[in-house]
Structures are given as structure tokens and as C-alpha cells.
Design brief:
By secondary structure, the protein is α+β, with helices and mostly antiparallel strands. Helix content is about 40%, strand content about 20%. It is globular and about 55 Å long.
Length: about 425
């Protein structure tokens, strides 16, 4: 009897310990800047949604998305673009989304009419947990073997919000490819995009090759236009994507083959202070200097910040591709495709290192004193003006040390090629 009571007590203790963990896993704390929309109401002509992104605030350290209610009128849509946002490694990587412009400022508005925009963007990505970074190789390539894979999240927000997010926050260039479509087709695609964005994606897991931003941009196009336009999209229906679009870089060319690429692309460059977008209302401009966070680092250091952030992403990509090569058969075509991609990434890394050295030489003292301070304290400086630079420098060193076979910190820092010419104290 005593033995049974002991077992029962042990079982209850285990339940008390494990139950909170299970609840935490079932209800994770999500990144507040990656929130799916919710339906409020809809009819044949319009839809009213919550969690629509109207932009972002900046408190000197962090960006915070501004969510609110929005009314979208389908008949006001004028044009649809396939958008490609390059990020390191640029030889193989890009984020693809769909952008829509409207005939008037009545296309997307807040219910009280106080907010409006000339366009909106539907973007599909992996939903991150709070303070999580998208660097897990297992989650990206083998979500079935991960204990907490990334669900998909469909973000819907204004075109101005997307410009701020991509050009100001992440400093990526947006290439917008207009599609040659009829009015009813454009409206059908917008309806399909909103419909897909409202589906519960909590068990629809992100996969870097088979269930990503590119796949869902084309799924929306398929629903809006009909499968007949994209008969060669799938190798294995709903499972394996054709090599024509397996990498985001191929997407614009694939559209051209289908006769859907209308021609001259619109390029929104992060180095520009004002970007211009053609609409049925004429050219609309977005003044990046007036968006929160534009001056979060001294202007002369922004190019260096960009290069350092790119360097960290490139090194992560290089290691991920090497690990992927180890899993592929040397006799297979994919093995050599990944091997070729690795070489391109290595070339980008070498170019990035040369650029970093050149930029630091222009302002060595200003660039390094915050890095040295952060390294000595093993934490980031509280000076918000230099936080992005200091964080990027610190991440480079931290990342390299983690892959340096535990060599002595001082010795390894001295060997870093990107820091060979830096003055030291």
C-alpha cells in the first residue's frame, strides 16, 4: 500500500512539473512583430480585419509594429506586383511577397477613416517566438524533426509599412515586378490572398524549400488565376516544387516565361532617402527620412552596420549549406547545386570582409571604441545611437568564437581576417 502511495505521489509530482512545461509549449510567447490578421466581418465588396500592420514605432532600441483594424475594398485594387527582397547570401536568397496598389486612397482605410494607404502587401514567413532568431538549421530544413518547428504566419500591412520594414529596419532593396493582368484577375488575387491570410497556420510548418514565402506567393496566384497558368509549378503536387521556382531568385524569370511579367521593374533602394512607386493615382512617394528609426545609427556608420549584419548572415548560411551538403548524396544533382551555392556564398563573404576593412579604415576610432567597450563588458553598449553597430561587431566575434574549436579568445581575435588592420589598444 505504501509502495502504491509512493508511486502515486511521484506521478503527481511529475505531472505538476511537466504540466506547466506542456502549457508553455502549447501557448508559446510569440514575437509581437509577427502577428496574423483576424477576421472581423466581410461581405461581397470588402473585408474588415484586425491585426493589420500600419507601420512601426522606434523607441531608440527596438521597433514595435503598429497593429490596428483595417477595411479593404476589393474593387479599389488596381495592380499586383511580385516583390523580391534580396538578403545575404544574395546569390541564392531573397524574400518574396505580393504587393497591391489601389485606384484611390479608399482601397485600405481604418474604420474611422483616419488612416489610409495607397497599397498593401501580403508577406508569408516563419513565425518566431519572442527573442528567437531564424538561425535553426533543423527547423529550416527538417521541421518534422524539431520539437518546436516554426508555423507559417501571413503578415498583411500597408505598402508604406513594408517599405519601412525592409528599407529602414533590415536595409534590404525591394524589387517590384508588375504582373500583366486584367482587372478581374487582380481583384481575384487580392481576395485569394486575404482568404489565405485568415486561415489558421498554427500547424502549417515552415520549410525553407517546400513551404516558404515563394511557394505561398504562387499558391495565392494559382487560386486567383487558376492552376492552368502554373501546371509545371509542382514536381509532386503540394509537396515538391519545380526547380524553376525552388529558389526565390528564379521567380521573376518564371513569371516572364508565363507571359505575366509586365516588364520594367520598380526598385526601392535602401540607400535612397525617398522612393517612388507608380499607381493609378500617379507617382506615390515614401520619404524614408520621416519614418521612425531612419537615424538610429550615425549616417556615416550605416554602410558599415549593413556590411557587418550581412557578414553574420553569410557565415550562418555558409555553415548551413555545408551541413546540407553532408546530408546529400555526392552522386546527386542537388549535391552539386548546393556546392555551387556554397562557393557563391564564400565569394560574397570575401567581398564582405574586404568591404568591412575598407569602411573601418575610414573611421577606425569611432567604429571600434564601442566594439571594444562591448567586448570588455560582454554586453552591448547602452548608447542607442551605436547599438546596431556594436551588436553587429559583437555578434561577428561571438559567432566566430563559437566555431573556432574553443581557441583562446585573444589569439583567435588576432587571427580574424576582418580585424587584421584594426588599431588595438
Amino acid at each position: 500500500m505504501a509502495s502504491n502511495n509512493l508511486r502515486l505521489t511521484a506521478l503527481l509530482i511529475c505531472l505538476l512539473v511537466l504540466l506547466p512545461l506542456c502549457m508553455a509549449s502549447a501557448n508559446p510567447r510569440w514575437n509581437p512583430n509577427l502577428t496574423p490578421i483576424k477576421l472581423v466581418s466581410k461581405n461581397a465588396n470588402e473585408v474588415l480585419i484586425d491585426n493589420f500592420r500600419w507601420g512601426s514605432t522606434f523607441d531608440g532600441r527596438n521597433f514595435q509594429a503598429i497593429y490596428g483594424r483595417a477595411r479593404i475594398r476589393f474593387s479599389e485594387v488596381d495592380k499586383v506586383y511580385l516583390c523580391s527582397e534580396d538578403f545575404p547570401p544574395k546569390a541564392v536568397a531573397a524574400h518574396v511577397s505580393l504587393a497591391f496598389t489601389f485606384k484611390s486612397m479608399n482601397g485600405v482605410t481604418s474604420p474611422d477613416g483616419s488612416k489610409s494607404d495607397f497599397g498593401l502587401v501580403i508577406s508569408v514567413t516563419n513565425r518566431l517566438r519572442e527573442n528567437e532568431t531564424p538561425t535553426s538549421f533543423t527547423k529550416a530544413f527538417f521541421p518534422a524533426f524539431s520539437k518546436d518547428p516554426w508555423p507559417l504566419v501571413f503578415e498583411v500591412g500597408t505598402l508604406t509599412d513594408r517599405a519601412q520594414n525592409s528599407l529602414t529596419i533590415f536595409r534590404q532593396t525591394i524589387k517590384m515586378f508588375p504582373l500583366r493582368l486584367k482587372q478581374d484577375q487582380v481583384e481575384s488575387i487580392l481576395r485569394a490572398g486575404i482568404q489565405q491570410s485568415l486561415v489558421d497556420r498554427s500547424r502549417d510548418y515552415y520549410h525553407v524549400l517546400g513551404n516558404n514565402c515563394v511557394v505561398w506567393a504562387y499558391r495565392i496566384l494559382m487560386q486567383g488565376l487558376g492552376d492552368q497558368f502554373f501546371k509545371d509549378f509542382w514536381v509532386l503536387p503540394n509537396k515538391v516544387v519545380s526547380h524553376n521556382v525552388s529558389l526565390p531568385k528564379f521567380s521573376p524569370g518564371y513569371l516572364s516565361k508565363k507571359g505575366l511579367n509586365a516588364g520594367e521593374r520598380v526598385v526601392l533602394d535602401a540607400n535612397q532617402r525617398v522612393v517612388k512607386i507608380p499607381t493609378a493615382m500617379g507617382i506615390k512617394t515614401i520619404d524614408l527620412t520621416k519614418l521612425p528609426g531612419y537615424q538610429r545609427a550615425p549616417s556615416n556608420l550605416v554602410p558599415l552596420v549593413l556590411q557587418l549584419e550581412n557578414y553574420v548572415q553569410l557565415r550562418n548560411a555558409e555553415i548551413d549549406l555545408a551541413r546540407l551538403n553532408e546530408l546529400l548524396s555526392p552522386a546527386g544533382e542537388d549535391f552539386f547545386r548546393v556546392l555551387k551555392a556554397r562557393q557563391k556564398v564564400t565569394d560574397e563573404i570575401n567581398d564582405s570582409i574586404d568591404t568591412i576593412v575598407r569602411l573601418v579604415r575610414k573611421a577606425p576610432e569611432e567604429s571600434l571604441k564601442f566594439y571594444v567597450q562591448g567586448l570588455k563588458q560582454h554586453k552591448l553598449t547602452r548608447d542607442n545611437r551605436y547599438a546596431p553597430l556594436n551588436k553587429a561587431l559583437f555578434l561577428v566575434v561571438q559567432f566566430e568564437m563559437n566555431h573556432a574549436n574553443n581557441r583562446d579568445k585573444a589569439d583567435y581575435l588576432a587571427d580574424l581576417k576582418s580585424f587584421e588592420s584594426f588599431p588595438r589598444k
